[in-house]
């Protein structure tokens, strides 16, 4: 079963399948989630993104 996290980017909320996350990086306390075909810049810290991934819920 796939697990998803919801990430808000500007005015858009993305529901991301954690299986498609390639990596997560942080620059100046802002995390960027790298997917196969795009990047999503968040206002969250790297630690908060890690917690979201660890607690991802199935849909």
Output the keywords:
three-stranded antiparallel sheet; globular; 6 strands; alpha+beta; single chain; OB fold (Dihydrolipoamide Acetyltransferase, E2P); 59 residues
Mean pLDDT figure: 90
What's the total helix number?
Answer: 1
- CATH hierarchy class name: Mainly Beta
Strand arrangement across the biggest beta sheet: 2-1-6
Which regions are unreliable across 5 or more consecutive residues at pLDDT < 50? none
User: In terms of structural class, how would the helical and strand content be classed?
Assistant: alpha+beta
Strand content: over 45%
How many strands? 6
What's the domain count? Answer: 1
Q: How far from one another are the termini?
A: 8 Å
Summarize the structure.
By secondary structure, the chain is α+β, with helices and mostly antiparallel strands.
What features would you describe in this structure?
By secondary structure, the chain is α+β, with helices and mostly antiparallel strands. It has a single domain (3-58), classed as OB fold (Dihydrolipoamide Acetyltransferase, E2P), CATH 2.40.50. It contains 1 helix and 6 strands. The protein has one helix at 46-54; strands spanning 3-9, 12-17, 21-27, 30-35, 39-41, 57-58. The strands form 2 sheets. It has a 3-stranded antiparallel sheet with strand order 2-1-6, with no helix packed on it. A hairpin with a 2-residue loop joins strand 3 and strand 4 (30-35). The protein is globular, with a radius of gyration of 11 Å. The relative contact order is 0.28. The model has no long low-confidence stretch (mean pLDDT 90).
């Amino acid at each position: 079963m796939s697990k998803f996290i919801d990430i808000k980017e500007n005015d858009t909320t993305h529901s991301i399948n954690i299986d498609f996350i390639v990596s997560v990086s942080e620059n100046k306390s802002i995390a960027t989630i790298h997917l196969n075909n795009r990047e999503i810049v968040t206002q969250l810290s790297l630690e908060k993104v890690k917690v979201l991934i660890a607690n991802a819920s199935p849909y």
